[in-house]
Design goal:
By secondary structure, the protein is an alpha/beta fold. Helices cover about 40% and strands about 15% of the residues. A hairpin with a 5-residue loop joins strand 8 and strand 9. The longest helix is centred in the middle third of the chain and has 14 residues.
Length: about 220
Amino acid sequence: MTDTPQAIHILIVEDDPEICGLLQRYLQRLGYKVSTALNRAGIDAAEKRRPVDLTLLDLMLPEEDGRTLYKHLRQTSATRIIMVSALNDIHDRISGLDLGADDYVSKPFDLEELAARIRAVLRRAQPEAAQPETQGVQHYRFDNWLFEPAKRALYGKTGIRVALTGSETDLLLTFCQNAHHVFNRTELLARIHGDEKNVDPRAVTGHKRKAAQRPPCCHELWEA
């Protein structure tokens, strides 16, 4: 992925035409390629036209629940996902992040802040760029697992793909690139979120908890 906005495809999944139009015009002015969708068919059509780099997914949709569409996106696309919702209770935000979203934005939101969050998520989509010594590495093998960072995919011994979220990919890649090194929570926050402010430390704990349910290397390399 590149930092050039013209090369980045953003998908807006939103049923409110006013909000959808506002977001589309704003992001297009910033130089992004923007598509919109109301449902699963629209999501699949947008992905078919051009791979989607980032999706702004409203959770309250008329045809299908946003969390269901989230799972569909994780199974069919490598897109990063920012959940957008009028549900702004702290428990709703934590629930969305625990589900695996790359970020969660509450309505109403400030357009400039949203743009900053989009840039931050897209930066995190490039973990390899910060590790030039690992360029050219296409995959990692450990135990019975095959990890392909570029596809954000993890394959078990039966060949079944386990779709990873953006943060899970960053976390697993960090472990693979630093085998036998023990990280504490602060170090992992810095590697995954860079210099972003207001990052909830519980987010890393949540990613670790989910990763521990997958390949054993994730929790073996963790220092609480």
